[in-house]
Amino acid sequence: MLLDIRNLVVELPVGRELRRIVADVSLGIREGESLALVGESGSGKSMTTKAITRTLPDGAQVSGEVLFDGKLVGAMSKRELETYRREQIGLIYQDPRAHINPVRRIEDFLLEGLLLFDRRPRAELRRVISDLLAEVGIADPDRCLKSYPHQLSGGMLQRVAIAAALSTEPRLLLADEPTTALDVTTQAEVAQLLKQLQARRGLAVLFITHDLDLAAQICDRTAVMYAGRIVEMQPSRTLYASPAHPYTRGLLQSRPSVDRRYERLPTLPGSPTPAYEAPAGCPFAPRCADRMPVCSTYVPHLTRHGLAELACHLGAGAPGGN
Amino acid sequence: MLDSSSAAPLVVAGLRKTFAIGGGLLQPRREIVAVNGVSFEVAAGRNFGIIGESGSGKTTIARILLGLESATSGDVMFFGERFARSRRATERLAHARRIQMVFQDPYSSLDPRQTIGDGLRELLRLYDTEHVDHECQQLLDKVGISRALAAALPRRLSGGQRQRVAIARALAAKPRFILLDEAVASLDVSIQAQILNMLADIQKDSSVQYILISHNLAVVRQLTDDCIVMHRGAIVERGATEDVLANPQHEYTAQLRNSIPNPEKPLQ
Predict the structure, then answer these.
(1) pTM for the complete prediction?
(2) What is the mean pLDDT of residues B13-21?
(3) In the CATH scheme, what architecture does the domain A29-55+172-322 have?
């Protein structure tokens, strides 16, 4: 395993109390593999990624283990941590404009990180980033390097951000909703680009999204989070064709479709619950049409049923399950 | 003068909006054409979709319809009457009864220091509503906001609840149109479906018509009967939503359609 998360629990201080955001997450990503982490707001998907980079807010309480290439991230020294963040992980965010200095040219933005530790001459590094820009699909890299961020479209800027993330040749790409803020047509192009880069460079990718369709299109496997837990994990194709968890089914059914107009859209009742507000037992039980008495008493744990891993008391017998 | 009983509820004819930029010491003055000769009609009893990406001009059209912006040229007619932007309070109030707006981000459109109920009652008084308390309760029931939440400040509400409140506030004016500008775009999937159903329910017992501005074709399909597709300030395609989306005639519409992630065709 390149990335191995075992029983991760994250609690954040809010006033005097500690709020549980991630309740129990275990997942693994192999070298070159892509995993989508899908969830609604408050599901804990973003805090899971912050635990991977050890960039949780001050005062956060963490238990469980995050291992990168067999090394415990929580036990890394300051120096090891810096090297790990810089050389092993590339980060891509939702809004590139918020992460690229608006008053500096793209060239300076892309070079500043590299110049800190890469001893090659500036001219050579410039060639490296120019090639990278070409690789992420920017037609005129030299012109782009001379531009300021406001001169570039959102899609161009996200390509620049991807180039920046790749410039240290990381092994794992953490992409947090990288296409959400983009226009539809641009979103499709950036999704295609991420998929190509992953295949060409043999990158491992953790793709954070709320969009199950996009997840299925880009990633080998998909994990669905609810109230700080992974409730289902499957190869994307089978998850999409035969979702086993009632929450996953509900999510898939409640999406409107471009091909038909529903008299009424099927809905999940209620709203998503963060882990700290989750009831005893299965956190999804109050919204679940298939709940049984056991569901409000015991938390179901993620267990394997064929290709799927599922945290549901209905188990493999879940309606529509494998 | 057109006969107001037979005219379409909303007619937009030859709408054009240009913005001047630059004109400082160093920059020559340039003109940007945001909306370039746009004409459409919203027929009675039909919901209307305006499909477009950023820069398409769809938000400029919304701002002109709402009276937040004046058109450079062209006409907007509501129920056969030419609409001209006015600063006069009576005119603005009359326009509030024609069209209301629900934004993508309801967080910024609510007063953080006023409870949901108080804010809604204040609006109802502004519209000279009789039985303000009764009406307030009816509106909150209609959008599924409990009495406990009505006594709360906006920050206690989730995104979906705030959007419900924004819809109640739009309904307070008893408008003929509600313009939804990406109003369900930032909601969680499970909440989005609830709100879309609620919008359909509201329409069952009132004659309000929706104008939906969105880049999400599935949402446009679910909520609207007719639509236009905009690209760079102009309409590139129009028709019944079902036909436009099932069988796009313009290259750009087809491109939008093909950009929807399709899990059955994984990317290579």
Answers:
(1) 0.90
(2) 93
(3) 3-Layer(aba) Sandwich (3.40)
